[in-house]
Structures are given as C-alpha cells and as structure tokens.
C-alpha cells in the first residue's frame, strides 16, 4: 500500500479551512487533476462524493467523506475504477489564528502497479496539491 503524509500551516482560521476543504464541488476550480467533483448523496455528516480525475488517463471513483467540523474530515473508498483502497484524512488544529493541517492518504491501486510506482503516484502530486490549497486560501480569503 502506498502512503503519504504532510503537515502545512495555512493563513486562515480552522473554520475557514474546513469550509474550503469540504466544498468538494469547487475542487475542479483549483485542483488541476480534478475535472469534476460532485456530491451524489448526503447521510448526516457523511457525503458520498464522486471524483473525476485525469492523471495520465481519466478515472472516476467515489469516496465517503466523513465530516467532523471544524476538526477533521476522513474518507474511505466506496467504488471506482482506480483504487482497491483509498483512505485518508485532514486533521485540523488552530495555531494562533491559522490552521495547522495534517493530510494523510493511503492507496492501493487496482491492477498491478509496482510498489515504487504506486508510492510515486501517491507522493508526487502532494506538494502541488498543497500549493493549490495555499493559493485557494489567498483567492477565497485574501491572505
């Protein structure tokens, strides 16, 4: 299984960052690999979200997003044509009016993907994704 983890401090409050990361349908506005993202079902604090992504080729998958505002979002795979397993989380802490966000993901791909390649697929986009979230905070909150 390929895993990745990173922690970043974002220049917005925890409530603001939670609002940004839980606005799934806006992901295609700032995450370049996401061509579409939509909520297909809501069940209490869980949302079934369908992602259409383009990484080498196009894939679709659905994740159950569990929201524990404003501290945490965690997810697990429902279905899709890319992953056997896709679990992860955002854990958010207040840090003097800013947000310390820890992002974790673990993935196992369908079909044979050698371990080093799977790890690269999970890790290589992480800095770009974090950069996109920092840019989004500036766009939305002006900071």
Description of the structure:
The chain is α+β, with helices and mostly antiparallel strands and 143 residues long. It has one domain (2-141): Alpha-D-Glucose-1,6-Bisphosphate, Chain A, domain 4. The protein contains 4 helices and 7 strands; from the N terminus they run E-H-H-E-E-E-E-E-E-H-H. A hairpin with a 2-residue loop joins strand 5 and strand 6. The mean pLDDT is 92.
Labels describing this entry:
7-stranded antiparallel β-sheet, Alpha-D-Glucose-1,6-Bisphosphate, Chain A, domain 4
Please compute the radius of gyration using only Cα atoms: 15 Å
Helix percentage range: 25-40%
Q: Classify the beta-strand content into a percent band.
A: over 45%
* SSE string: EHHEEEEEEHH
Total strands: 7
Distance between the termini: 37 Å
Write down the oligomeric state. single chain
The CATH architecture classification is 2-Layer Sandwich
Counted by DSSP, the helix tally is 4
Low-confidence stretches: none
Question: What is CATH's topology name?
Answer: Alpha-D-Glucose-1,6-Bisphosphate, Chain A, domain 4
Overall mean pLDDT stands at 92
Morphology call: globular
Q: What strand order characterises the main sheet? A: 1-7-6-5-4-3-2
CATH class: Alpha Beta
Please summarize what this structure is.
By secondary structure, the chain is of the alpha+beta class. 27% of the residues lie in helices and 52% in strands. It has helices spanning 14-21, 27-30, 115-124, 126-141; strands spanning 2-10, 34-43, 46-55, 57-68, 72-80, 83-95, 98-109.
């Amino acid at each position: 299984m390929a895993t990745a983890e990173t922690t970043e401090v974002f220049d917005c409050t925890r409530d603001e960052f939670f609002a940004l990361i839980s606005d799934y349908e806006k992901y295609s506005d700032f995450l370049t690999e996401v061509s579409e993202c939509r909520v297909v079902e809501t069940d209490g604090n869980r949302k079934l979200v369908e992602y259409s992504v383009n990484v080498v080729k196009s894939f679709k998958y659905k994740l159950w997003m569990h929201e524990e505002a404003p501290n945490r979002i965690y997810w697990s795979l429902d279905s899709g044509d890319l992953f056997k397993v896709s679990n992860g989380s955002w854990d958010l802490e207040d840090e003097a009016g800013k947000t310390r966000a820890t992002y974790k993901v673990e993935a196992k791909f369908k079909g044979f993907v050698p371990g080093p390649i799977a790890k690269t697929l999970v890790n290589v986009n992480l800095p770009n994704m974090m950069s996109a979230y920092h840019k989004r905070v500036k766009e939305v909150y002006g900071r």
